[in-house]
Amino acid sequence: MTTLTSTTDTVTRDALAVLQPGFTGTSAPEWLLRRVGEGLSSVGLFGRNIETPEQLAALTAQLRAERDDVLVAIDEEGGDVTRLEVRHGSSFPGNLALGAVDDTALTRAVAHELGRRLAECGVNLNWAPSADVNSNPGNPVIGVRSFGADPHLVARHTAAYVEGLQAAGVAACTKHFPGHGDTAVDSHHALPRIDVDLETLHARELVPFRAAIAAGSKSVMSAHILLPALDPHRPATLSPQILTGLLREELGYQGLIVTDAVEMQAIASTYGIERGSVLAVAAGADALCVGGGLDDDSTVLRLRDALVAAVRSGELPEERLADAAARVRALASWTREARGAVREPGAAAQEGTAPGTGQNTGIASDIGLVAARRAVKVTGEGAPLTGPAYVAAFTPVANIAVGDETPWGLAAELTRLVPGTETDTYNGNSEAPAEAALRAAGDRRIVAVVRDAHRHAWMSEALDALLAARPDTIVVEMGVPQAGPRGALHIATHGAARVCGQAAAEIITGG
Q: What are the residue numbers of the active site?
């Protein structure tokens, strides 16, 4: 393990300690190892860094050879947002499916199994769960990532998720404080604004965060959203009134405060990442997430130097930076102690129970499929398939959090159960998608797969045309089922994870 060099002064080490950068590649680049040796305390992983459980375990071991207590973070929500299984789809349904079942013991078990797999690969901080109350059904970025629209339902499942994840030795990061559910804008692209009064905020948005704090969430992630009732000038990530006044002082939270990615346009296009990072730490943030889009050494150095310069100029109090770094190191110490109760990284891969092995058997490793099956809601009494079908997948543009690398739908699972089934994908730019689907289907029964049909007029119109021509069409909604059931058989999966598709395919075939 590398010893911190004496030439790296305390302020510089603290500035490195509060960064959570990403990188490119499936092994740690030399520059990253060098920064870890100089004091970098955290590293963020994304889908681009992960191929197999064995490779991921080797990567995390490589990082810990430099610093035994390094925080290795990941954005692994399960469901639509997966990094562990980015190429195949998740073995776990997401939050909306768990909320639809409304069994906190099940949510706790799913989170524990997900945490176990992360821990066995050497990951010890998960940027999850989403505690956002999806009160705006048109929300373009939360949707199925939320447990639902009822604050108290979201609260009890957020607490259960935190408990399950942390019982596996992985720190939870409850997000996006103080609540991203009532937005019509994706903060990856612009700065959302939520115009609610304080009474509404306390009765709705803050209820799940209070539950997460009571459950002992080790970290909380801030949202890049403007709430004029609390701070009319700065988004939550940069607001002392929100991070220090509300979260620390009013809610009494003493764990690590992590920012959402500072290169998101809500911050980058308004303040710039250097200025935004300084303002975030000054406001009360302890760790800066960066690396989903910026993933090189120069970004780390830019942010490190901006923080150091702010301390030197007196803009950022040295004690505030030192306090932030101390909170990062305290969480790192907790994860190292928790790791003692978890098997060494790589054990999962050897036993064939890690994500992506295709050998998940037994109640613990199959809990995701169990949950997905329980989450399905079926309306109508259409006859099951008796022969090959035609799957028309009406596909919206994926938001950045979900990404477009991860396959979704049910065509692969349905083809496995009914050989000869074929599929095509249609989007908002497709010319006459319903007519094209009807031509391609021929006399085969049509399975129309949609995702948030209520948010996409073209998708709803295509469904209308299909059902008018072929009333026996099976409709599978894999997003928020806001539009209501239609079709001879309507299946709401409450998410687009691979296991959600499997659960729907089983119903379609009468399994």
A: 188, 260
Residue among 473, 256, 284, 282 nearest 382 (CA): 473
Element (H, E) at 375: helix 367-375
Q: β-strand 489-492 against 474-477: which pairing, if any?
A: parallel
Query: CA 458, CA 371: separation in Å to the nearest integer?
Result: 31
Q: Among candidates 66, 77, 182, which has minimal Cα distance to 130?
A: 77
Tokens of 48: 């681009």
The amino acid at 173: C
Angle at 296 between CA 294 and CA 302, to 5 degrees: 80
Asked if 291 and 23 touch (Cβ cutoff 8 Å), the reply is: yes
Contacts of 291 (CB under 8 A, 6+ apart): 20, 21, 22, 23, 44, 46, 261, 263, 299
> Of 261, 214, 282, 248, nearest to 22 (Cα)?
261
Q: What are phi and psi of 457, to 5 degrees?
A: -60, -40
Give the Cα separation of 386 and 444 in Å (integer). 10
At 84 the pLDDT is: 93
Dist CA 20 CA 22 (whole Å): 7
CA-nearest of 101, 227, 113, 217 to 158 is 217
As a whole number of angstroms, the distance between CA 435 and CA 437 comes to: 5
User: Consecutive 10-residue runs of the chain (511 residues): their mean pLDDT?
Assistant: 53 98 96 97 95 96 96 95 92 97 98 97 97 86 92 98 98 95 65 88 96 98 92 95 98 97 86 95 97 85 97 97 98 91 43 34 69 96 86 79 75 92 88 92 95 91 94 94 90 96 95 71
Strand locations in 317-402, DSSP E? Answer: 377-380, 389-394
State the Cα–Cα distance between residues 258 and 188, nearest whole angstrom.
Answer: 16
CA atoms of 418 and 437, how far apart (whole Å): 19
Tell me how far CA of residue 23 lies from CA of 31, 55, 290, 475, in angstroms: 10, 15, 10, 40
